Amino acid sequence: MKEKILPFRQIEWWVVTFLFVSIVLSNVLSSPIFSLNYQQGTIYFAKIFIPLIFLATFYLFHIKVFPNYLKDGRTAKFIIYTILIFLGSFIGIGAFSMNARFSDDFIIPFYFNSLVIYAGYGALIYILNQLLIKNENNLVYAYNILRSILIYIFVVIFLIQFQRIAGEFVAILFVFIIPSLFGLVFYNFFLIYGMQKQNRKGEATAYLVLLLCIIAGIFITIAIVENAGEALIAGLILIIAIVAIIFPISNFFFRKYDNYLGQLDSLTVKVDQGTANLAFLRSQINPHFLFNALNTLYGTALQEKGERTAEGIQKLGDMMRFMLHENNQDRIQVAREKEYLVNYVDLQNLRIKDQENIEIVFNRSEDSCTGEIAPMLLIPFVENAFKHGISLQKKSWVKISLRCLDGSVHLDVNNSIHRSNEEDPEKKASGIGLENVKQRLQLLYPNKHELIIRENELEYFVHLSVKL
């Protein structure tokens, strides 16, 4: 499966949202609001609303304004919206900052530092994009890894300069807890879960024991050096969490991911098989119809009437143009399929025009057919009717009805049957046309078509409805 660039704009939005929501929740729970005095209350609300203003600013610019500018390139609109967002956020953050005495004047250092961090991140991403994606390098895998690392690095840099508002808990969460969790999950995926998938259970157990021993050694060392017995308890809790929570949950998602990849590969194989089958079916259909048309012209030429032969050649020319230019397309206009069908019936009428015992009825709506359909779905049933339904010695008939409704096409074909007639060399053909069209209907219109075929000793009936 081809590597694709991850949806980093959405990833950045969710990372920043998680960051600021963590800051807000940490500040909300840091102290009971009812026990605060006026100055403490202003600081309390400032620590809540300043992160929310930052989050709203990031959303408006990074998710709305800047992507729209990249799409439409309207510089004036981009500059106006950027200035409005800057002024709104600057005034709001400045008001809360001064009221909480985070700054002595309206020039807020951490606000402008945040802008510099954001600009620096954007500049590095641009350079990364030029080096790894543009200029035909297309190093998508390396780009995804490096950009993910840059997101984390700049989040940590932002927290360092935002620590007066963010608080200690959030810093510990993003600097220590989250990287540790990611490290444990990757360790499990590559060295424990990966070994188990390869039936190397002994090595998987060894890597698990090694990890637990390293963690135990770290916390024992801390307990001895710092003379802190609680470090042993913390280490024990961490080991239990790894064995009982972190690894089982991560293994569950790993298995889900493997199942997803398996289903995706299976669907890819089925699609490839369907495409190959469809191409093969089309390659069978085209020569089959060409032979029928040439055989009809052969019968017309035997009657030595130049006008009718010329008319037949014209009809054949239209049919050949259709097959050459439109038959290989996935979809064509229904009107073009109808036109091909009319030409085919007219061509057959030339051959049997003077036969009194043969009845040809072709009812079709005069309204234009709208919509698109896969080519060569209707003609095999009509061709089959002429192939098996016409005898120059016995009473014969072919009755066709073609209706185009809003969003669907309906074809009804009724013909006589003459099983022992060997006048037409095509009688001995294998008749692959109908089988092909049945397979194409299953491939192209699953649950969107109805095909009813009935026959007895005297006649053959086909009803086909296709939802476009």
UniProtKB/TrEMBL annotation:
Pfam families assigned to the protein according to its UniProt record, in alphabetical order: His_kinase
Keyword Transmembrane helix: yes
Annotated keywords: Kinase, Membrane, Transferase, Transmembrane, Transmembrane helix
InterPro entries noted in UniProt: Bact_2-comp_sensor_kinase, HATPase_C_sf, Sig_transdc_His_kin_internal
One Gene Ontology molecular-function label: phosphorelay sensor kinase activity
All copies of domain Signal transduction histidine kinase internal region, residue ranges: 276-355
Transmembrane intervals: 12-30, 42-66, 78-98, 110-128, 140-163, 169-193, 205-225, 231-254
GO CC term, one of those recorded: membrane
Record has Secreted as a keyword: no
UniProt cross-references to PANTHER family, sorted A to Z: SENSOR HISTIDINE KINASE YPDA
Protein name per its UniProtKB record: Histidine kinase
